[in-house]
Design brief:
- By secondary structure, this protein is of the alpha/beta class.
- It has two domains: 158 residues, 3-Layer(aba) Sandwich (Rossmann fold); 177 residues, Dihydrodipicolinate Reductase, domain 2 (2-Layer Sandwich).
- The chain has eleven helices and 15 strands.
- It has a nine-stranded mixed sheet. The chain has a six-stranded parallel sheet with strand order 3-2-1-4-5-6, with helices on both faces.
- It is globular and about 55 Å long.
- The structure holds nicotinamide-adenine-dinucleotide (NAD).
- Nicotinamide-adenine-dinucleotide (NAD) binds next to helix 3.
Length: 368
Amino acid sequence: MINNNSTSRRDFVKGVGAGVLTIGASSFATSVMATKAKPDKLGIALVGLGNYATNQLAPALTVADNAYLAGIVTGTPAKANIWADKYALDDSHIYNYDNFDKIITDKGIDIVYVVLPNSMHKEFVIRAAKAGKHVITEKPMGLTAVECEEMIAACEKAGVQLSVGYRLQFEPNTLEIEKAAKELPLGPINYVRSEFSFTIGNPKQWRLKKELSGGGPIMDIGIYCIQAARYTTGLEPIAVRAVEYKTDYEKFSSVEETVMWQMEFPGGLYSNHTTSYSMKANELFVSYQKGNARLEPAYSYANVGGHIGERQLMPHQVNQQALQMDNFVECIRQNKTSKVSGKEGLQDMKIVDAIYKSIANGGKRVEV
Ligand code: NAD
């Protein structure tokens, strides 16, 4: 499953000559966006240089206050060359999936950020913890709650902090919704609805292979709705009911295409959700006793906005990923648990496990 390649950048460069470097670099960007070590910043190594790492996390690390891109872990030597040039990375901070454990002696790397397909999160979080590095893993934290528990235990044993890439918990308008759950300016919450869907392309991608993704849209983007229902209400669900349906049995042969589910919270509060790889939706709606709130888009990298009661929530020009990583560094420095710690990821996976159980039981109520 692992995209192994044990050729080091140094060996690769030695073997094929500089011509390949130039050709490879031209498809990315040739300007060096150095994020040189600074004494007041912690160094992050990104593991897996796919779309999210390339287009969101690495750029965020050029504007973050507390962290910088200090290293990379990749199975593709050509990517290593391009990234090394673009981010002025020394060969000594470049790893592949096989020699990754050598990172234990790399004093320049404080945090490992796992940005691989979901089924690989657990392995690399545990290896990073054993190497004594603090860890951020992308969502979903693991494939099941049991996996998440193993990841948390490994980090606790190693004495390192673990966090999940829940960037929205640092987005200002999302924080307004979270604050309303605590301060209740519009009275108690009596209903939540949220949908997150997109139409998925390439039928051969890992997101559609259960052994790599662990599941379909519920694992990938439905998890944002689960998160939102929790931070919108400040409550934990006690039970779920869920159903799935498919229109394309070939494309979605191993994962679900669309899931509709309901979460039941203490006190008779309910939330309703849809997530799909065949629709387009990106919305959070909250009903309070004296008004409502709505974010649309609710889950995008930018332009999260809407209203709460009479007040407009204009989009903020912030880099969510930079805020998220900066906050993690502050937590490490202050020895404080991150608000998006492994326990937060575990709770979401307990809910996902219950959703899959309910689907398997024809939509029956399943306690979380
Ligand atoms: P991607 O397909 O673009 O990148 C995956 C990376 O993993 C690639 O570099 C690929 O080479 C590598 N890889 C290693 N072994 C592989 C294998 N066996 N099969 C496929 N790829 C393999 O995916 P992505 O969109 O960057 O997603 C990576 C992770 O980030 C996922 O867990 C995803 O849920 C998460 N993500 C989070 C956000 C967010 O907003 N927080 C957004 C997008 C993705």
